[in-house]
Design brief:
mainly alpha
Length: 168
């Protein structure tokens, strides 16, 4: 069985050392198919021995259908590559959002656990302030000032102890 397959010779293989630097900083080159050996084999057989596929018409149809399927396969591969890249970006974004969600969830849990302590501090601080004012009115100034200082510190600490953090 003698079949002739037209294998194209490269115009410039780049192996002779005469490469030249491109004038453009970046050059966009269309992706060339790695090879469509089945398409070339069928096209070569159809061109050289049309009787192998049942005659000229049948061999032309088979060669054309094979070429079309090869082109469609290349397009589908390009689309698949694009979808995979998009999927990787989406997965990276999802990972970032999961991290943010975990951090925010921890902050909410922290706020819930310290909320009761803050409320107790505010209540005791307010009570200490009012007792301190009453002690100052009843000529127990030393105790009143101490109660005012303790109440003020408790109020300030309870108000300022809100959970803080950056957005990351």
């Amino acid at each position: 069985m003698n079949s002739e397959i037209d294998v194209p010779e490269p115009e410039d293989s780049g192996s002779d050392g005469r490469q030249e630097k491109s004038e453009h900083k970046s050059e966009v080159v269309d992706l060339q198919p790695v090879g469509r050996p089945m398409e070339r084999a069928i096209t070569g057989l159809a061109a050289s021995n049309s009787r192998a596929f049942g005659g000229e018409v049948a061999s032309t149809l088979i060669a054309g259908a094979t070429s079309q399927m090869a082109v469609e396969l290349d397009q589908i591969r390009k689309e698949l590559h694009g979808q995979r890249e998009k999927n990787e970006r989406v997965m990276a974004d999802l990972s970032e959002e999961k991290i943010k969600s975990a951090v925010l969830s921890e902050r909410v849990d922290s706020f819930r656990s310290t909320r009761h302590l803050k409320n107790i501090g505010i209540a005791v601080g307010t009570l200490s302030l009012s007792v301190g004012l009453q002690l100052i009115d009843s000529n127990l100034s030393a105790y009143g000032v101490a109660a005012l200082v303790i109440g003020s510190v408790l109020l300030l600490v309870s108000w300022m102890a809100a959970p803080k953090g950056d957005d990351k």
